[in-house]
Amino acid sequence: MDELLPLVYDELRLMASQKLSHESPGQTLQATALVHEAYLRLIGSEGNAWSNRTYFFGAAAEAMRRILVERARRKGSKKRGGDRHRVDFTSADVMAEESPDDLIAMDEALTNFSETDPVKAELVKLRFFAGLSFEQAADLLDISPATARRHWNYARAWLYGRICSTD
Q1: Of 27, 53, 80, which residue constitutes the final position of a domain?
Q2: 1-60 pLDDT, tens digit each
Q3: Helix axes 4-21, 53-76, angle to 10 degrees
Q4: Cα distance between residue 126 and residue 152, in whole Å
Q5: Quick count: other Cβ atoms within 10 Å of Cβ 95?
Q6: One domain for residues 76 and 122
Q7: CA–CA distance from 151 to each of 28, 115, 121, 125, 137 (Å)?
Q8: DSSP-assigned states of every residue in 101-128
Q9: Residue closest to 162 by CA, chosen among 84, 109, 95
Q10: Structural domain span for residue 104
């Protein structure tokens, strides 16, 4: 097995590159990593007495396919947020461009949030509705800009979770 990898490495890497070219954009797995993972699975398998070159490369292709399918399943599992879509809330006016229903949902969530954390809710109002910067909002709330950023990050996550759970 130790002598086999140098002999077939280039061909395995070409196979891996071809398999990865059919994957969706944003794939973080590289061809080299796929080859190494497949090779580890091949040498770890019990029946590794391959009768010929075709059988070996067939087994390697199957190992690569299984690795890609496992990664896709892990990526798409609900446990890892596979049913969620990334939304960028970095700018204060992000919701202003959304539909009126989204604005209503935001307002309801913000009302609930203000009952549990009024300072953070006030920060959201100042940033989101008034369009103030972190420094301006922090000055009005008598907190540091760093604290304002931490509050903002927490509030965005809380509100996003609330809004998405009502959909």
Answers
A1: 80
A2: 566 667 777 877 887 777 767 666 666 678 788 887 887 887 776 556 666 666 677 777
A3: 50
A4: 11
A5: 19
A6: no
A7: 31, 15, 9, 12, 11
A8: HHHHHHHHHHHHHHHH-HHHHHHHIIII
A9: 109
A10: 95-165
- Domain match, 75 and 19 both: yes
Q: What tokens does 11 get?
A: 């061909």
- Looking at the chain, the number of H-run helices and the number of E-run strands are 7, 0
Distance of CA 167 to CAs 66, 100, 162, 164, Å?
34, 14, 9, 5
Domain count, the chain: 2
Distance, first Cα to last Cα, the chain: 54
Q: Answer yes or no: is 90 within a domain.
A: no
Residues 73, 138, single domain; the answer is no
**Are the CB atoms for 128 and 92 separated by under 8 Å?**
yes
Is position 26 within any domain? Answer: yes
pTM over 0.70: no
SS3 content of the chain, % helix, strand, coil (to 5): 70, 0, 30
3-state SS of 82-105 is CCCCCCCCCCCCCHHHCCHHHHHH
Task: Indicate whether 33 belongs to any domain.
Answer: yes
- Rg of the chain taking only CA atoms, in angstroms: 25
